[in-house]
């Protein structure tokens, strides 16, 4: 008969320690945890320290049951790898949660039989492999980047198998596998050759697409499958194809269970209630085992309940004979002072205790080591508790939940929380291109601008033979259906057209000189703008500001009190700001980063530096709610420091505001946070040194004028998630300094964005969030009927606590409602766009935006950022009455916000917004005509060129025309996807040194096999072209024989002596045909390589000359 035990008084990691102590040899241990990712990670780290066994993690899905979204492939891969390990490992520790345990999965035998085994020198036809991968849930893609993806190219298969941190490449000869190796997905370079691989499923439903289509019984679902195959959410449809499934208990033999919660039964039934509320009909429940089944299966084994509860528990969660025990573990808070910590640690060492200090952050590990060095203690890093041989202090470089002292075992485990008073988490940066606007995004029919020929319509990529050679060309149609074929090596001459909203541009003619005349006028206009920009820039540089030089003591304390580890981008932005502030030139920096990526911390570091130099700080925000949010954030962050902080908004009475203004004038307030009230003429700072502006684009014209007048004399820091393109362009042009924060916080999941219609779908979304214990924003941007919207929700969900708020309310009423929502007393807040900035509540993870088509792209993106700010998945529902009846721009806007669900998409949103609404008055009404006629990008490029010319920094790079009888292109049968070929052409065009070109060729060869001669020729000719362009060459003729002819622009200043030297060094015959024409002959087996070396040498020496 199974036994049941309760153990209380567990502190921090002591629960994991005790679980390992009770572990029976040869009997697997299943640890049942709350549905909390951070708890799961901490416990896993603790078990890895305390146990030498393999720790298995069986994660839950991150989305709601029956939601039409694919599970994260990383989660599916982890679940699959764990099932495989359960089958093959004799002893282990398994982490399980209620949700992960309830989901049905394939029978053990079906799972084992589905595994694909590939071995070197064995046959496994590619056709069969593709069918089996489809059955296992793998997705066919163009480029493999994540677990559960694969692609085939010729005789090469790339597969990112479950359980691997890198993909594998399999090379075939007919049906036989010639080689298998692991490769780097970013560089495409080989890492390690292996002799075989087992490919595990990444789906709970093992079925091919064709079988899935054939076996679906439901008419609507079957129709959807016929159109989309295994569509998103297909893994929930097991009951609809009459497929029997099992559960995780079938995979487990005899085991013991440890539960880190006081009532396991209630937890299981609670999650099953959520599942039941999510189903649309009874058949869907068959995807899960019932809570009753789960509890009965758990009862078969010994169960240990471990919790921090110190009082006896009257109700026993599972009906067994119960044994209750209190631990003798001690809890120590050492962070009251470092001296106190030292005394405690030294006392423990005298008692021969083995001490382990757990800290994940490199920064705080260093602080702890420095602290111990003063006592002649030098800790070593360990991975397992068993590595400690005698009484000493060791370092464990992973996060745990908290420390404990166990005198019986002789171990003391100390966490960073115990020493520093908070938990430091190490970031896992994911770098990405924040401002990526590739031409490969072009669709046929898009308007494009050719620098030399004007506006045309893109017709696609054509492979044609011209003048004895063949290659890939972009086909552009002009007025009168005339076609221009632009060689892909000249891709830099093209830009995607952005003009004015709802205005189609006029096509230019290839037979007219009108384009050249228009360009000349546009350049003159651009020059005037450049003059204005440079005047502003010069004025700022000429103004003498204040150099913020302090002793660093206040900053050091402030930085140490930061509860997280800064991301790489965040640190970079902080140091950018520090450097700016220490200069005598007034700072004007834009910090750009997504919602919740840490911009406010950068601002608070700047504020701390200003205060350390006895200067005052003003924080200007666009909304009352954001003012309050920042006030609370600043108060919490500066807690314990001698810093006085106040805020002004309409929440403050006139009398209170006047008192604050007087304090500001007297210097009694260090930081003032507020809305436009800060710009009041009644306010006079005693010594303002720093102005911080959050979301500057939200302010009106009159406010911006006042901001501009304040900026003249103080350092200015602007924060923005989706910068307006003018702000962005000034930053990119070097007129304004910019720092970018791209790295998302750890554990942040992308927000799921869906378009919904009808009241029933809105109510269902609200109900789903409330049932998982969350709160909901319901955005209704019409004050006149916002109360009716709230009443309607209350009528449909009578048990929900619903209220509404809008900007026309009196301050006290709004403040009371918002406070109630903050504290969780309101479930659903129906509000106008007052919530767009500043409300940051981790428990609010669903937002429904009513009439979403009425909002701009940047505004939708900002609203989406109100949810998903914790480790829980956020959901943004875009509610429209009829998507099909929306105009094309509104449809495109809603489609883009769904597509750009990745974290850190704010830059792309800014550019897409620009494309959708047109450039308009971004550069001013006077210039909008030129924007329409030449396109935004070309016009801005003209401004940048004019700015550089005036600053003496402009380098003219000729667009060298190439004529050659050598074949140089990327064959379509080598890389089939035209977009990928397009992108590689762009990358060839951007390379200016032989080593980088070699790296690109390695990447292509690793991904697509042996390089064709045409690609090798392309790489060398692009190098020659790029160097020749930098040298001022207008024309370049290259021949198979090794002969070449270069024509330089007449303004080119080239030293003939350098040409002679480079020719002699490379043994190339040369002859000056005229002052600007040069003939070369590379008489060798590799004439292109020798010619490329010559031009690189010439370019290098010319720069040094």
UniProtKB/TrEMBL annotation:
GO biological-process terms attached to the record: regulation of DNA-templated transcription; transcription-coupled nucleotide-excision repair, DNA damage recognition
Gene: mfd
Classification via Gene3D superfamilies: 2.40.10.170, 3.40.50.11140, 3.40.50.11180, P-loop containing nucleotide triphosphate hydrolases, Penicillin-binding protein 1b domain, Transcription-repair-coupling factor, D7 domain
HAMAP family xrefs: TRCF
SMART domains: CarD_TRCF (SM01058), DEXDc (SM00487), HELICc (SM00490), TRCF (SM00982)
Protein name: Transcription-repair-coupling factor
Keyword set, alphabetical order: ATP-binding, Cytoplasm, DNA damage, DNA repair, DNA-binding, Helicase, Hydrolase, Nucleotide-binding
Pfam families the UniProt entry points to: CarD_TRCF_RID, DEAD, Helicase_C, MFD_D3, TRCF, UvrB_inter
UniProt-listed Enzyme Commission number(s): 3.6.4.-
Species name: Mucispirillum schaedleri ASF457
């Amino acid at each position: 008969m199974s036994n049941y035990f309760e153990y209380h008084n567990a502190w921090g990691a002591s629960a994991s320690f005790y679980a390992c102590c009770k572990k029976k040899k040869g009997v697997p241990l299943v640890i049942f945890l709350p549905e909390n990712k951070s708890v799961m990670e901490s416990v896993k780290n603790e078990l890895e320290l305390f146990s030498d066994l393999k720790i298995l993690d069986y994660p839950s899905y991150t989305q709601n049951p029956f939601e039409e979204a694919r599970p994260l492939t990383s989660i599916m891969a982890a679940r699959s790898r764990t099932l495989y390990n359960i089958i093959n490992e004799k002893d282990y520790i398994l982490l399980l949660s209620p949700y992960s345990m309830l989901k049905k999965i394939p029978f053990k035998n079906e799972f084992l039989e589905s595994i694909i085994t590939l071995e070197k020198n064995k046959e496994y036809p590619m056709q069969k492999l593709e069918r089996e991968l489809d059955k296992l849930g793998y997705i066919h893609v163009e480029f493999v980047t994540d677990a559960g993806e694969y692609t085939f190219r010729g005789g090469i298969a790339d597969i990112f198998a479950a359980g691997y941190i890198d993909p594998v490449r399999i090379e075939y000869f007919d049906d036989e596998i010639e080689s298998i190796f692991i490769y780097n997905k970013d560089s495409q370079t080989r890492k390690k050759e292996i002799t075989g691989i087992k490919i595990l499923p990444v789906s709970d439903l093992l079925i091919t697409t064709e079988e899935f289509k054939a076996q679906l019984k439901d008419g609507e679902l079957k129709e959807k499958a016929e159109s989309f195959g295994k569509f998103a959410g297909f893994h929930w449809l097991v009951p609809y194809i009459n497929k029997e499934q099992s559960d995780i208990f079938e995979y487990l033999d005899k085991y013991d269970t440890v539960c880190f919660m006081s009532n396991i039964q209630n937890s299981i039934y609670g999650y099953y209630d959520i599942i039941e509320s999510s189903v649309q009909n009874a058949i869907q429940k068959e995807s899960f085992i019932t809570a009753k089944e789960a509890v009965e299966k758990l009862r078969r084994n010994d169960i240990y309940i471990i919790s921090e509860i110190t009082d006896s528990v009257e109700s026993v969660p599972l009906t067994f004979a119960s044994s209750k025990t209190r631990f003798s573990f001690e809890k120590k808070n050492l962070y009251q002072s470092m001296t106190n910590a030292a005394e405690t640690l030294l006392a423990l060492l005298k008692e021969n205790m083995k001490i382990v200090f757990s800290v994940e952050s490199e920064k705080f590990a260093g602080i702890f080591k420095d602290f111990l060095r003063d006592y002649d203690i030098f800790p070593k890093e360990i991975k397992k508790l068993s590595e400690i041989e005698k009484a000493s202090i060791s370092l464990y470089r992973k996060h745990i939940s908290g420390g404990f002292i166990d005198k019986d075992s002789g171990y003391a485990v100390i966490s960073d929380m115990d020493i520093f008073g908070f938990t430091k988490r190490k970031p896992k940066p994911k770098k990405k291109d924040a401002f990526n606007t590739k031409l490969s995004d072009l669709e046929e029919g898009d308007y494009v601008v050719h620098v030399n020929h004007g506006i045309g319509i893109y017709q696609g990529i054509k492979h044609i033979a011209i003048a004895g050679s063949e290659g890939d060309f972009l086909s552009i149609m002009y007025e009168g259906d005339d076609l221009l074929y632009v060689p892909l090596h000249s891709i830099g001459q093209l830009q995607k057209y952005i003009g004015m909203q709802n205005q189609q541009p006029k096509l230019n003619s290839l037979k007219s000189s009108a384009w050249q005349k228009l360009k000349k006028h546009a350049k003159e206009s651009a020059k005037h703008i450049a003059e204005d920009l440079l005047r502003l820039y010069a004025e700022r540089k000429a103004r003498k500001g204040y150099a913020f030089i302090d002793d660093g003591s206040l900053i050091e304390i402030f930085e140490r009190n930061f509860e997280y580890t800064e991301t790489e981008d965040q640190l970079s932005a902080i140091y950018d700001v520090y450097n700016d502030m220490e200069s005598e030139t007034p700072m004007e920096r834009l910090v750009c980063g997504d919602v919740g990526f840490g911009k406010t911390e950068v601002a608070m570091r700047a504020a701390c530096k200003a205060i350390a130099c006895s200067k005052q700080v003003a924080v200007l925000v666009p909304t009352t709610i954001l003012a309050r949010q920042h006030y609370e954030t600043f108060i919490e962050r500066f807690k314990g420091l001698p810093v006085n902080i106040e805020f002004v908004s309409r929440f403050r009475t006139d009398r209170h505001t006047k008192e604050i203004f007087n304090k500001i004038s007297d210097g009694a307030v260090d930081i003032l946070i507020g809305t436009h009230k800060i710009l009041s003429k009644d306010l006079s700072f005693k010594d303002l040194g720093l102005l911080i502006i959050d979301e500057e684009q939200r302010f009106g014209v009159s406010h911006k004028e006042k901001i501009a007048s304040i900026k003249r004399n103080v350092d200015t820091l602007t924060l923005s998630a989706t910068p307006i393109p003018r702000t962005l362009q000034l930053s990119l042009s070097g007129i304004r300094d910019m720092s970018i924060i791209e790295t998302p916080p750890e554990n942040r999941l992308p927000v799921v964005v869906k378009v919904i219609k009808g009241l029933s779908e809105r109510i269902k979304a609200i109900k789903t969030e409330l049932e998982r214990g969350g709160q909901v924003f319901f955005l209704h941007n019409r004050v006149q009927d916002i109360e009716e919207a709230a009443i309607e929700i209350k009528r449909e969900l009578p048990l929900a606590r619903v209220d509404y708020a809008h900007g026309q309310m009196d301050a006290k009423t709004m403040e009371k409602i918002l406070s109630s929502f903050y504290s969780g007393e309101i479930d659903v807040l129906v509000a106008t766009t007052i919530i767009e900035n500043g409300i940051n509540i981790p428990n609010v993870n669903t937002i429904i935006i009513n009439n979403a088509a009425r909002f701009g792209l940047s505004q939708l993106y900002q609203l989406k950022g109100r949810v998903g700010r914790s480790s829980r998945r956020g959901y943004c529902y875009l509610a429209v009455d009829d998507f099909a009846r929306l105009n094309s721009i509104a449809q495109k806007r809603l489609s883009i916000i769904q597509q750009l669900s990745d974290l850190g998409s704010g830059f792309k949103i800014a550019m897409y917004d620009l494309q959708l609404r047109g450039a308009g008055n971004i550069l001013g009404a006077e210039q909008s005509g030129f924007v329409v006629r030449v396109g935004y990008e070309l016009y801005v490029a003209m401004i940048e060129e004019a700015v550089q010319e005036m600053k003496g920094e402009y380098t003219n790079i000729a667009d060298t025309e190439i004529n050659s009888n050598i074949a140089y292109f990327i064959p379509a049968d080598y890389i089939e996807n035209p977009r990928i070929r397009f992108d590689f052409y762009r990358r060839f065009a951007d390379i200016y040194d032989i080593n980088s070109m070699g790296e690109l060729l390695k990447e292509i060869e690793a991904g697509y096999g042996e390089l064709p001669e045409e690609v090798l020729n392309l790489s060398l000719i692009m190098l020659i072209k790029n160097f020749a362009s930098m040298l001022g060459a207008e024309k370049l003729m290259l021949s198979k024989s090794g002969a070449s002819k270069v024509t330089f622009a007449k303004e080119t200043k080239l030293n003939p002596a350098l040409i002679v030297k480079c020719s002699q060094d490379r043994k190339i015959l040369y002859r000056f045909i005229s002052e600007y024409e040069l003939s070369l002959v590379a008489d060798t087996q590799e004439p292109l390589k020798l010619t490329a070396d010559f031009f690189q040498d010439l370019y290098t020496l010319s720069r040094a000359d």
